[in-house]
Amino acid sequence: MSAKKKVKTGNLAILVGGGPAPGLNGVIAAVTIEARRHNLKVYGIMDGYKWLVKGDEAEFKANVKELRISDVSRIHYDGGSILRTSRTNPAKSPNGVENSVKLLQSLGVSYMVTIGGDDTAFGAMEIARTAGGQIKFAHVPKTIDNDLPLPNNLPTFGYQTARDLGATLVKNLMEDARTMDRWYITVAMGRHAGHLALGIAKSAGATLAIIAEEFGHEGYIPLDHICDIVETAVIKRRAMGNRHGVVVIAEGVAERLSPEELKQIPGVIVEYDSFGNILHSEIELGKIIKLKVESRFAARGEKMSMVEINIGYVLRCADPIPFDQEYTRDLGFQAVRYLLNDNNIYKGNAMISVDNGKLHPIPFEEIIDKETKKTAVRLVDVTSDSYRVARSYMVRLEKRDLEDKELLPRLAAAARMTPKQFIERFEYLAK
Prior knowledge:
There is one protein chain. The chain is of the alpha/beta class and 431 residues long. The chain folds into two domains: 11-157 and 320-367, 3-Layer(aba) Sandwich (Rossmann fold), CATH 3.40.50; 159-315, Phosphofructokinase domain (Rossmann fold). The protein has 16 helices and eleven strands. Helix 1 (24-37) runs parallel beside helix 12 (322-340), helix 8 crosses helix 10 and helix 15 (407-414) packs across helix 16 (419-430). The termini are far apart.
């Protein structure tokens, strides 16, 4: 006779933190369905940590909904989040972590699934530490930025859908640029890493991609350096007989600009969220670059038409493509499996990954950067063959261009300089 299946006790709660990403509803659905199959009561917490940190039990419970299989059985097709989301930081709210533990325990929560990026994971780690083992956490990594340290370079869910739609949008912009004989500067999301901008540009065959990692990992990036890259791309295209193109730039480049330099630009407001991140919506990186590059051509007596557009917010709530529909079902199922399994390898709190079809939990302690004390970030490896391929398709000033006896005079003429002046001005880019 087979042994009876051990019945789990306690309730399970789910919340979503950070920005939206395609596939959020897929995780919520998979977690709910699997937890319900184990006879657990499932609570969906609205608006991330927002109501937890306040400590008001009545207000909190008014923003909690019990989830049943019938509520979620078909939501995995849809973008957005039925639980909404927020960027509330428990560690920055007065007694936020302690309040969160108290209110979760008031619901009888023994198991917690958080869905989000590095900031949401950090909040989960702080609450788990304070709960002292009374609540077991599983964090499902979500971000279209693709910058969480998953094994074997696994993507974070939402990235593939965002890249797919982003590549379609950039392809359309490329055709518009050709038709209108103009340039577009397209800003894509990627606060810390340039995976999305590079992936979109590489997939669509954009003229140029600029990511922060190409400038090294430390120090500020001079704004003029970025503008020089764009300006010389325009000049090189003109020397090759074309007057149009599309630049894709990662918003995280703004993180590396000097705050003092930004403050000197009229209309720019440097503000930060509760996690200490720059609010990119206030900086308008594309517009800053557009105006500076246009002014350089105007100084030569030329009218230069550039259009800046930020496609980040267009991508975040897109309906997930089949890849993310399937991937999020795996992640949600495995999050519940991890929480309910008594095997020694599944003890503690962990970030969930699915590697080659198998559960691969990563203990919270292993995803912390020893220097920053925050969640580690996966950056683009600019020494990789994949990045080398991406660069090979971009229109950028290269060392061989300055050595080409036919191309160099055309480059200089397009810049209204002598070849010597052109080399002296831009040679550093080719190094």
